[in-house]
Design a protein that fits this description.
This protein is an alpha/beta fold. The chain has five helices and eight strands. About 30% of the residues are buried.
Length: about 170
């Protein structure tokens, strides 16, 4: 029986995918001979191209993932702000990094990342009423306190008994 939900963010949490800064744009330019022509990094399949970028594991988080994936009492979820049309590209990056076992792969089906993630987590605890604890890993500074508030609300409403969020920053769990 599933009692614990582990939620892993993708970009900057499980995998170092860069931030779309000049470093990544220079890599793109060198490897393709073309300029990065888009404003967005996060909505572009090119940012996930494993033939251009060396997306690497964030070892601390992957260690946690490896410790929980085979536990039948834990539901493991990869929940990203990347849109659903990028799902194949995200999963190629995960596969390249030997992160191929999640019970669910969840993508942003529309709207802002924070709201979408909270909605999807809420839907999971509604769907699987045996979940009593949520453990999350995320890298977005601005989201950590919002997720803590959200977790507290879920506890107050009786959906779960415990909520823990771990902030991943600079490749380390804080």
């Amino acid at each position: 029986m599933v009692e614990i939900l582990y939620v892993f963010d993708f970009d900057g949490t499980l995998i170092n995918t860069g931030k779309g800064d000049e470093k990544q744009k220079n890599i793109y330019r060198v490897k393709t001979g073309k300029e990065w022509q888009w404003e967005s990094w996060w909505d572009r399949e090119e940012s996930l191209d494993v033939n251009i970028f060396d997306h690497t594991q964030i070892v601390d988080v992957v260690s946690v993932y490896n410790n929980v994936i085979n536990n039948p009492n834990i539901l493991t979820v990869m929940l990203t702000g990347r849109k659903t049309f990028l799902s194949e590209h995200v999963e190629v990056v995960l596969k390249k990094n030997d992160l191929t076992y999640f019970d669910r792969y969840m993508y942003n089906y529309g709207g802002d990342t924070l709201t979408n993630k909270k909605d999807q987590i809420f839907n999971l605890v509604n769907e699987i009423d045996t979940i009593r604890k949520i453990v999350m890993y995320d890298d977005r500074d601005a989201h950590i306190s919002e997720f803590n508030i959200f977790g507290g609300e879920l506890i107050k409403l009786g959906f779960i008994d415990e909520f823990n969020i771990y902030h991943v920053k600079d490749g380390k769990i804080r």
